[in-house]
Design a protein that fits this description.
- By secondary structure, this protein is α/β, with parallel strands linked by helices.
- 36% of the residues lie in helices and 14% in strands.
- The protein is built from 8 helices and 6 strands; from the N terminus they run ααβαβαβαβαβαβα.
- The chain has helices at residues 5-15, 36-45, 67-76, 96-103, 119-124, 140-147, 161-166, 177-182, and strands at 54-58, 84-88, 110-114, 128-131, 152-155, 171-173.
- It has a 6-stranded parallel beta sheet with strand order 3-2-1-4-5-6.
- Strand 4, helix 6 (140-147) and strand 5 form a beta-alpha-beta unit.
- The radius of gyration is 17 Å and the shape is globular.
């Protein structure tokens, strides 16, 4: 079984395996757009002002997720135009992403929240979901965020392109610092 079209194609082309497409599942009763009062409360609980733009990533934090490029892209933006970045997930040993944010001077624009169990509450506080990955299969984190109605910025890579057929409003960028900063 394959969780998405790209995974199915990969199994067939690389390994000669005929697979059945079984799309990834998410709880469509839970991951729904937040009401204005839910968004207000979520932002308040995180100490986020009404005038702040908030970008979020969720999920694993391995190098393939390319969070470092997103952090570096923040540094390319003027400080008064820089969004707040909520980084949700457990970082690799040594906390390389936190170290990078401190080293390049954007630590005040990034909040490392670690593991969070109520992702809908996080999404309710945010303005944009980003997934700058170098490649993906078929991301459940992306599916959940899109179901909440968040606008999305995805890397234009294998796996994430599949979402464009389902959600035509996704903005795509190359998974590079320059392209992410521009987007």
């Amino acid at each position: 079984m394959a969780c998405g079209p790209t995974v199915q194609r990969n199994e067939r082309e690389r390994y000669g395996l005929p697979t059945r497409l079984v799309p990834s599942w998410y709880d469509s009763r839970y991951f729904v757009p937040a009401s204005p009062s839910e968004s207000f409360a979520a932002r308040q609980s995180l100490g986020i002002g009404d005038d702040e733009t908030v970008v979020v990533t969720t999920g694993t934090c391995s190098a393939v997720k390319n969070h470092g490029a997103l952090i570096e892209a923040l540094a390319r933006l003027p400080a008064n135009e820089r969004p707040l970045y909520l980084h949700v997930g457990i970082e690799e040993d040594g906390l390389p992403e936190q170290g990078l944010a401190e080293k390049i001077g954007v630590a005040d624009s990034v909040r490392f929240l670690g593991e969070v169990h109520d992702l809908r509450g996080i999404y309710a506080a945010c303005d944009v979901f980003a997934m700058p990955s170098l490649y993906e299969g078929f991301s459940v984190a992306a599916l959940e965020a899109l179901a909440t109605g968040l606008p999305a910025l995805f890397a234009d890579v294998v796996g994430l392109r599949d979402f464009g057929k389902i959600y035509p409003g996704i903005r795509y960028a190359e998974p590079t610092v320059d392209s992410l900063a521009e987007a």
